Amino acid sequence: MSQKVLLNSKEVTIILHRLACQLIEKHLDFSETILVGIQPRGVFLAERLKQILENEYQVPEISLGYLDITFFRDDFRRTDKPLEANKTQINFIVEDKKVIFIDDVLFTGRSIRSALTAIQSFGRPSEIELLVLIDRRFSRHLPIQPDYRGRQVDAINGEKVIVSWKENDGEDVVHLVTN
Ligand SMILES: O=c1cc[nH]c(=O)[nH]1
């Protein structure tokens, strides 16, 4: 196995600030907007963006929820292993709000397709956007594209993009791993 650094900690910080500014351009004070981190790993990115927006750009408190998609995946019956769901926590009304799905890596688009189904249980948002740190180009199985992307990456099928976060993994870094 070999691994190459795609983004180091400084680059991750710069990208997070850019994404935060792009969100402010569109969502201003976030009064009609809800951030939704896709479980499990989109939550780290969503929390980080909330922190940056509130602490560094003085946006008033932003609504942040977590959405688990385990049982909304179209392949969940195909596994023999018992599936373990993560927490879904959406403590506010999404009806007529602008929802931003946040995930670390966009690959086939199937997770986001599942998230679109899962969010329906909480009402009908006025719109749903997608923000990802890494957009794996040419990998999509579905017509799903991000509205905000940190970095576009060409990775071939045997390769994997791994995003690590300081609070969970000790360091902010993105690796391209080849088996
Ligand atoms: O490369 C990939 C593809 C999907 N999910 C990841 O975390 N990395």
| Proportion in helices | 25-40%
Nearest-angstrom radius of gyration? 16 Å
Q: What portion of the residues fall into strands of 2 or more residues?
A: 25-35%
Bound molecules: uracil
Looking at the structure, what is the overall shape?
Answer: globular
InterPro entries: PRTase-like, PRTase_dom, PyrR_bifunctional
Pfam family, one: Pribosyltran
Domain Phosphoribosyltransferase: 3-155
GO molecular function, one term: glycosyltransferase activity
Provide the descriptors you would attach to this structure in a database record.
binds uracil, alpha/beta, 5-stranded parallel sheet, 30% strand, globular, 3-stranded antiparallel sheet, Rossmann fold
What does the model show?
27% of the residues lie in helices and 30% in strands. The chain is globular and about 45 Å long. The chain has a single domain, classed as 3-Layer(aba) Sandwich (Rossmann fold), CATH 3.40.50.2020. With 179 residues, it is an alpha/beta fold. The mean pLDDT is 95. Strand 4, helix 3 and strand 5 form a beta-alpha-beta unit. Helix 1 (9-27) packs across helix 2 (42-56). It has a 5-stranded parallel beta sheet with strand order 3-2-4-5-6. It binds uracil. The site of uracil has 5 residues, from strand 7. It comes from Flavobacterium defluvii. Residues 3-155 form the Phosphoribosyltransferase domain. This is Pyrimidine operon attenuation protein / uracil phosphoribosyltransferase. InterPro entries: PRTase-like, PRTase_dom, PyrR_bifunctional. Keywords: Glycosyltransferase, Transferase.
